[in-house]
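Appendix B. Chain record.
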Amino acid sequence: MNGATQRRRAPSVPPAVVLADSADLPGLSQLLSGAIPRCSPLTVSDLPWSWPGYVLVRSDDRPVAAGSLQPNPDLSYEVRGLVVDETAQGQGLGRRVMDHLVATADRRGADLVCVTRVPQFFARFGFMETTPDWLPPQRRGPDFDRAERVAMRRAPRGVAA
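Structure tokens predicted for this chain:
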């Protein structure tokens, strides 16, 4: 190496997935609003009540990735508001948020459910297509089957589906 010392690059530390707090509400609302129509407008309008279920990744003190677990009457949890800011896509942040949500549901022994337009992403985490019978009628609507959305379910690890 002709006398030159080669500097080693310090390993980069992946951004932490943290629980949202009330101070995150404006940034979380902006992040989710930017995802409409991919993200349901109900997800944004429910934020004043649902934000405690959110986890997120921050960059420059603003949320750039987020997702939540919202409880259902059947004791499952719905993954809602899974979004990554366009400027932060391709960095694995959606996967990091999902890993956190899946681990949380597994610790609780709970099924996870979701409604998505990208079933291939959720399939990587063990979700399988299912009927939307767990979805409240006001969210299902008469044109659910024509809306390019798929209902999916995942049993906790170690539990038969």
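Further analysis of this model is presented in Appendix C.
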